[in-house]
Amino acid sequence: SDVAMYFAKEGRSGVEVYLAEKDRNSPERLNLLGDLRRAVGDGELQLHYQPKVNLSSGRVEGVEALLRWWHRERGPVPPDDFIPLAEQSYLMRQITQYVIDAALEQVAAWWHSGLRVPVAVNVSARDLLDPTLPELLEAGLARLDLPPVAIRLEVTERILMTDQAYTADSVHALVELGVPLALDDFGTGYSSLVRLQRLPVCEVKIDGSFVQRLGKTADDERIVRSIVDLVRSLGLRSVAEGVESDEVAGYLREMGCDAGQGWWFAEPMPAGEMTTWLRARVD
Ligand code: C2E
Ligand code: CA
Ligand code: CA
Ligand code: CA
């Protein structure tokens, strides 16, 4: 099945592999989906926020909203366990609407109190192609008196690199609206230079799997360096994901990578903590 393919490609473990090996209609899968349906309604979903930091100036450039689910019985369920499931059902649309609404409310609270940090939200394939997405964003931005650059969408390489995305009306409408797009998980797909050049993205996020190996092997260093160079030559900004140490941040800075995100700077945290964190750093 698609789910099994997805997990096989991502090389994941634990619950996910267990789910992947099961049939699409397995009790386990249906349970989690049923629970998720309830969770969306009952407010068990919440956003956490993680800052993105400029590697040369140390300035906070924005924050990424990351979905958290605190399951009544299971405790925290990681997004990598439930997003792929939700993507196979109508629930994903509802989840994305929740994420966009919550992120917009939060960015408005920050923005209007002087913390002008854009919030990035992750959107999945079908949501990006949903013709109502631009309207939803436009209405939300207007209602909260926010400029389009207060929000941005992160879309994975595998989705944005398809012809379907390139020609989608929704993508053109988003560009028209002025909402920036970022290419997520770069390096894990099969992008060609030509495609990358044609895409309406302003930022490329280098997948954490390459970043974390910096300093360990010369190959990984060459890969990251060539991505950073490629991204710069296209006039786009490079952001490294999964920066876990000062050493790695140093390598990236030396390579000319623009920004970094990861535990070295801050872990994803609830909105209240993020506000305190930002207040101490943004003027
Ligand atoms: P992503 O968009 O690539 O997000 C980055 C992931 O790396 C997050 O995992 C984040 O918590 C984690 N991370 C941050 N810093 C570090 C670090 O220094 N080291 C390591 N090893 N990891 C770090 P998380 O929160 O578990 O999210 C996993 C994935 O789930 C995300 O990957 C994204 O694809 C998806 N996701 C999360 N929230 C949403 C959402 O609201 N909507 C959609 N469609 N997908 C989401
Ligand atoms: Ca992301
Ligand atoms: Ca990513
Ligand atoms: Ca990822």
Describe this structure in words.
With 283 residues, the chain is α/β, with parallel strands linked by helices. It contains 15 helices and 10 strands. It has an 8-stranded mixed β-barrel with strand order 1-2-4-5-6-7-8-9, surrounded by 5 helices. A hairpin with a 3-residue loop joins β2 and β3. α1 (2-10) packs antiparallel against α2 and α5 packs parallel to α7. The longest helix has 21 residues, at 91-111. The chain is globular. The termini are far apart. Residues 1-18 have low confidence and may be disordered. The structure holds ligand C2E and calcium ion (CA) (3 copies). This is GGDEF-domain containing protein. Residues 29-282 form the EAL domain. Keywords: Membrane, Transmembrane, Transmembrane helix.
